[in-house]
Amino acid sequence: MSETGIRINKFLSEQGYCSRRAADKLIEQERVTINGSVPEMGTKVLPDDIVAVDGQTISAKKEKPVYIAFNKPVGIVCTTDGRVERDNIIDFINYPTRIFPIGRLDKPSEGLILLTNDGDIVNKILRSRNNHGKEYIVTVDHSINDKFLKRMASGVPILDTVTKNCEVEQIGRKTFRIVLTQGLNRQIRRMCEFLDYRVTKLKRVRIMNIKLDIPVGEYRNITEAELTEIRKMTADSDKAYIPNEEDEMD
To answer: With 70 as the cut, is the pLDDT of residue 99 above it?
Structure first.
């Protein structure tokens, strides 16, 4: 750790406790202390400081990095806070060391989500302007037509913005494949609703170079080859980036 210290949210992220976004929430909730005192947002941690969350000291010793791919079932919530959600992803996986999800996938959705204890790689992957593709198979409540496909691909006005151009392909009467490079809150569902369609099933099948290849409710380690490719794809990402509240909630 630098003699001048690092910001408390970055410290918690680097220790594999949670993402920086989640750390900011913990600080706002006054669940974090430095040397027994509740810090302000942006407070820096110095080498001899004692940091605790909910009274539990966070060791500055780094654990072995963990990178896993998980096939999330419908009904599981992508939060690390078991006090808020009973059916949370961390309790469901029950991994032997602390990990947290890279982004989110909403409760009614299923499919691929990555988890890790490496805070820096979280920020790099979620940096949407790097155009890291996420692929989904989506089923809607009535028949798809060319107008729907063209509108979805060319941009839809939601959340006070217009979605980026994306790849869309019909694969069934009511089913399509879509590849997003941004992660607005419930983006696909909102896009479909704007065009008078309702999503009945949403499944993420790929994140960047990682494909969904495991049964529902199971996980596997990301391979060294896959991890090497991720690092190449995120090499130009800014490690200081902090994801916003809408990142990766499809």
So the answer is: yes
- Where do the CATH 3.10.290.10 domains begin and end in the chain? 6-57
Q: In whole angstroms, what is the distance from residue 205 CA to residue 216 CA?
A: 12
Question: Predicted confidence band at 137 (pLDDT cuts at 50, 70, 90)?
Answer: very high
User: pLDDT for 159-171, tens place per residue?
Assistant: 999 999 999 999 9
Residues annotated as part of the active site: 106
Match domain 63-250 to its CATH number in 1.20.1540.10, 3.40.50.2000, 3.30.2350.10, 3.40.50.300. 3.30.2350.10
Report the top-level CATH class of 6-57: alpha beta
d(CA 122, CA 168): 26
CA distances from 222 to 13, 22, 38, 138, 241 (A): 20, 23, 37, 25, 23
